[in-house]
Each structure stands twice: as structure tokens, then as C-alpha cells.
Amino acid sequence: MSLSLYKKKRSFSDTPEPEGGRSTLKDKLVFVVQKHDASRLHYDFRLEMEGVLKSWAIPKGPSLDPSVKRLAMMVEDHPFDYRNFEGIIPEGNYGAGTVIVWDEGTYEPLEDASGNKKENEKHLLKQLHAGSLKFVMHGKKLKGEFALVKTSYQGENSWLLIKHNDKYATPADVTEKDKSVISKKTITQVEKTSDKIWKSNREQRTSTGKKQITKTKESGDTRLKTEKKSAKKKTKRHSHIAMK
Fold first, then answer.
1. How far is CA 225 from the centre of its chain?
2. Do residues 108 and 205 touch, judged by C-beta distance below 8 A?
3. Do residues 124 and 52 make contact, with C-beta atoms less than 8 angstroms apart?
4. For position 99, what pLDDT does the model report?
5. In terms of CB atoms within 10 Å, which of 23, 73, 198, 201 comes out highest?
6. DSSP string, 171-211
7. Could you list the mean pLDDT of each consecutive 10-residue stretch along the chain, which spans 244 residues?
8. Dist CA 147 CA 51 (whole Å)
């Protein structure tokens, strides 16, 4: 599946978001739910299919209560490596804000599931195109049977995420479990990172073919401070030259 829309919306020289990646699991499909504090707080629900992450934005987050239907707006496919992305998307970029990995795990179709990943994927894609997905989740917070059902409630991209009534169903608000399953931090704790830098290194090749490690980019705030300091130094230097 093409990631052209995903890439069109982003400038990878300015954002730390991943560009691609492939699954290394031969018999399992993965899912991830990311809590994203952008212009509005929401949860990004992503299911591995066709080598990418099929994605839905859920404004109120998932629910384990079968009586609750959560609106889920389908968005562009995301690259497979996005499942591990956690950090800060700098101001001025699409989706600017803080992201944590709220939940992750594996999943399979509710019906006709097998140990064959390709067969499971085939069943799920058929359901996706039919507008009714039924699957079992094996996450740290989300467990059991769920359904994603296409609806015309808010346009052609709107779906509903519904929990089935099984042993994992509960009226308790699962979103109150607000820490990342990777860093164990809340959105607020990640936002308070002193230097506002995404904690990762990127490996790139130089023109000579040798590998080098480049630090991730600073956010808009930090970069602005750096530019101001640089401007002050230039002003002082120019003043000194004028006095001679």
C-alpha cells in the first residue's frame, strides 16, 4: 500500500517521524494505539495490514464498555516503524504535539483465525473493504474481541470502534491508565522533557558511503533560542569591527 499521502504531509528533515519499515514477525499481526496531544487530544488506533499500519483517529479513545461506541475517523496509512514512535513532533509540522505509545500487542481476526499471518491478513482485508472488521486483541490494556464498523455518521471516513461483551468487558474507563507502555511516562511527563528533543538517533550515509550518527532535530522553541543567541553574537562582532 502506498504511503504517498503520509509522506506528502510531512517534511522528514523537520520531523522525527519514521518513513518506512517492515515487520519481522512471520506469524503475527501487530497493533498499536498512540495517545497524541496535537491541536486536540486523541488516540491513534493502528492495525498492521499490507505491510503498513491502517489508522483511525479516536477522539475519546478506546472503551472496554460494550454499550459505548467510539467514533473512529480513518486517516492515511502509516509506515510500520511508526508503531514504536514516541516523542515530540516539532511545531510547524503536521500533527505537531506529543505522542506516547499508549498500548501495543498482536491481533487476529475473530473468525477463521489461523497460525498463518497471510491468511489472517487476507480475511481482515476482506472485512476492511466490506466495512466491518471483527478481531481479537492481545494488548497490555486492550484485550479480547472488538469490532470496527463503517458508518456514515461523519462522512465516508467515519467508523465506530465497539467492544464485544466478553470476559474483558468492563464499564471502567481504560483511558485512565494514562502511561506509555514503552517509557512508562504520561503525556505531561514527556511534554516536560527539558530540551524538547525526540530521544533518538538517526543513522544516515555520508557522500563517501560511510555511516554517521546524526542527532535528532531541535524543536521550534529550542531552535529559536539558538538562532537568537547566534544573532546576538553576530551583532556584538559587527559592533566590535565598527569601533576599530
1. 28
2. no
3. no
4. 94
5. 198
6. SS-GGG--S-TTT---HHHHHT-TT---S-EEEEE-TTS-E
7. 80 79 89 96 97 96 98 95 91 90 97 92 96 98 98 91 98 97 93 52 35 37 42 42 36
8. 21
Kind and range of the H or E element at 63? none
- What pLDDT was estimated at residue 236? 42
Rounded Cα distance between 94 and 234, Å, is 33
Q: Please tell me the predicted confidence (pLDDT) of residue 98.
A: 94
Q: How many CB atoms lie within 10 A of CB 42?
A: 20
CA-nearest of 215, 192, 219 to 202 is 215
In the chain, % helix, strand, coil (3-state, to 5) comes to 25, 35, 40
Contacts of 123 (CB under 8 A, 6+ apart): 109, 111, 112, 113
Separation CA 62–CA 71 (nearest Å):
9
Q: Residue 114: left if φ>0, alpha if ψ -120 to 50, beta else—which one?
A: beta
What is the reported pLDDT for 110? 97
The dihedral built from the CA positions of residue 128, 60, 143 and 99, taken in this order, carries a sign that is positive
What are the DSSP calls for 132-167, one per residue?
EEEEEEEESS-EEEEEEEE-SBTBTTEEEEEE-SST
Q: Say how far apart CA 233 and CA 144 lie, in whole Å.
A: 60
